[in-house]
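agent> Task received from the user: take the single chain below, predict its 3D structure, and emit structure tokens. No templates, no multimer pairing.
agent> Plan: (1) validate residues, (2) run structure prediction, (3) serialize to tokens, (4) report one or two observations.
agent> Step 1 OK, no nonstandard residues flagged.
tool_call: predict_structure(input=
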Amino acid sequence: MSSCDRIESNSKKTMPSDLRPTILFSSFYERDLIADGLERLRGLGDVREVNRGRNLTRQELLEFLPGAHACVVADEKYDADLLDQVDDLALIAREGTGYDGVDIEAATARGILVTNAPAVHNATANQTIGLMIALVRRIIPCNRGVREGEWTQRGRWRCPDLTGMTLGIAGFGLTGREVAKRAIAMGMRVLAHNRSDVAEVAQSLGAQVASLDDLLASSDVVTVHIRHSTQTERMFDAAVFAKMKRGAYFLNVARGGLVDEAALVDALTRGHLAGAAIDVMSQEPPERDNPLLALDNLICTPHVGGETTTTVRKAFDMAVDQVCDCFEGKKPRQLVNPAAWERGRIHQLLR
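)
tool_result: status=success, residues=351
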């Protein structure tokens, strides 16, 4: 029996106070996939459910967030100014791995706990490999050609083999490591770059650590798995693309803000890069006239890299677990700002 199951059956016995929290729930996951977790939330408190099929806008957050003690969120932006307007908020629980939309320093200063749900790295790695194969092997134009009666024109889609290619992985965390395992199994040479020391784990997987410049210059395919922050905003710009091998391929299944999209358009249009595959964009959803979407040598998917039926359930259940722990007075297991725990608003709420 989970924490929330106990709370639902006997809330006064397990809850450190008589508080029945108000929880804003802005997820746009399919409700049938997360029915069990949502029922646990409703057993814990009063759920303020808002489903727009997308991230909530700032105006919508300001409408629905006041009075909420916790929120289970997608990729909405929680900056210092917004947090100043929600005095009751004690917990922001992300239903995924990334939390770059939350100003962690501002949340910590206000005693607001922030948690994440790192349950999507395998799915994201699988999406990355799938996009890489589709891109390099030109699977999409091949499929289109067959449907247009061009079966015998196979030479038009001749392409290099991934086996023997060098894959450069920028960002060697959970997802990057899973990508490396899959690529090495395909016979690729793998270079890894990370801000912290990953030499030991890279060696154990069969990858080689490299500086970013060496990785860019040596890789046939470069894939990005770096956390988005003010320091990494538009990190992949014209200067970085110029350092890549002519005819190389570029993948981004991390965050759109990591890439200067105009520079990527230029590199693809000029042919410096042979192709790119992205699951994320700087503006989501993108405008219909975004120049990237007009390029034949680009594959784009709608930020679904980590979203499978399996990971949606797992990530949402993990987010609900964090809410349950918090309102039982327990330190959440996936707390990303532990410095906020001692000064956390949750302790005042539960007195």
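agent> Step 4: summary for the user.
Residues 3-119+308-349 form a domain with the Rossmann fold fold (CATH 3.40.50.720).
agent> Done.
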